[in-house]
Specification:
Elements: H1 10-32, H2 40-64, H3 69-94, H4 112-124, H5 130-144, H6 156-171, H7 176-182, H8 184-201, H9 225-248, H10 257-261, H11 263-280, H12 288-324
Helix pairs in contact: 1-2, 1-11, 2-6, 2-9, 3-4, 4-6, 5-6, 7-9, 8-9, 11-12
Transmembrane segments: 12-29, 41-61, 77-94, 109-126, 133-150, 184-205, 225-252, 264-282, 288-310
Domain Acyltransferase: 11-308
Protein name: Acyltransferase
Length: 325
């Protein structure tokens, strides 16, 4: 979810289009928590790869960006600040949840990604040996889970957990996609095996474990070893399934390519749309039919609002230029 990308790439726009749809569906299902339909495994499946791959893409475009680190940090944090403020107002005064207050370093729901992205940009200047940083960050992530003080503050846990994916993106060359495609059959076999393991383990894995936002003790398992295993498994599953998805994405313009171009705005809007529709009762999850319709409505409204915003933004800038001339 790179904040700025002037040179369009059909491959990555299509990839981001697919990923943002998975994010919207996964997050809204998790929020709705349907009681009559078992969506547990499906949500775990989506959380295996969608944010790891988004982080990977951010790392890839961070490397290609001509902006300085200071510019990237300033722009991303500015977006985070105003989004955090906007959602505080939205939750408190529109949805009527008076418990919400503005807390700069306690990100509202999905906004953690922007705060973590700011940190990854800062760290990218110090990543001089990608291999050592990649391995080291995984080890630190596995160990830091034992620290009971780690939580949502500053998005520390997520920043560390997803850092290896950002580094992998920085290291990635697009020519590697051809290599992945050559071995796609083997990667598919591994992915199926991993997803089968996930299926059998899913009754014992809490969805929150794949959020990666807190320590092992906060996960409320009977032992700290199991959440350690879950986090290690998440890494293996994310890289394997993620590689398979990278190999599947076509390098052509598709129906979801324009959606990928606007992934950041979709990401910023989708949580508000989901909250509003679910808590108002417009989105219903009584049965599978209502679930599909509700998810479709959430996606469509988010997309419509996004393109309406872009259209208004374009009109505004055209008028601004006309006024100057």
């Amino acid at each position: 979810m790179e904040v700025q990308a002037k040179h369009r790439d059909f491959y990555f726009d299509t990839l981001k289009g697919f990923l943002i749809l998975c994010v919207i569906i996964g997050n809204s299902l998790e929020l709705a928590d349907p009681q009559n339909i078992n969506t547990h495994y499906f949500i775990l499946f989506l959380y295996v790869f969608h944010m790891p791959l988004f982080t990977f893409v951010s790392g890839y475009f961070s490397k290609l960006s001509k902006r300085t680190t200071a510019q990237k940090v300033k722009e991303t944090f500015k977006i985070y600040f105003f989004a955090q403020l906007a959602y505080t107002i939205f939750y408190r005064y529109i949805l009527g949840n008076t418990g919400h207050k503005f807390e700069l370093f306690y990100p509202k729901w999905t906004l953690w990604y922007l705060l973590s992205l700011t940190c990854w940009y800062v760290l990218s200047d110090y990543v001089t040996n990608n291999k050592k940083w990649f391995i080291g960050s995984i080890i630190v992530s596995l160990l830091i889970g034992f620290d009971g003080t780690i939580g949502s503050l500053g998005s520390v846990s997520r920043t560390i957990f997803f850092l290896p994916f950002f580094i992998a993106g920085m290291t990635f060359d697009k020519k590697y996609i051809d290599i992945i495609k050559k071995h796609l059959g083997k990667i598919l076999t591994l992915s199926i095996a991993i997803l089968a393991i996930l299926f059998f383990l899913s009754p014992y894995i809490k969805i929150e474990s794949f959020f990666e936002y807190s320590s092992y003790s906060n996960a409320e398992y009977s032992t700290l070893i199991f959440p350690l295993f879950v986090r290690a498994f998440h890494y293996i599953a994310a890289f394997t399934v993620g590689a398979f998805i990278l190999g599947l994405v076509p390098n052509i313009k598709t129906i979801i390519t324009p959606i990928g171009r606007s992934s950041l705005i979709l990401y910023l809007l989708h949580s508000g749309v989901s909250d509003a529709l679910i808590y108002s009762g417009i989105a219903r999850y009584d049965n599978i039919f209502y679930l599909i319709i509700s998810e479709f409505i959430i996606v469509i409204i988010t997309v419509i609002l996004t393109f309406a915003f872009l259209k208004l933004k374009k009109i505004y800038y055209h008028k601004k230029i006309s006024t100057k001339n």
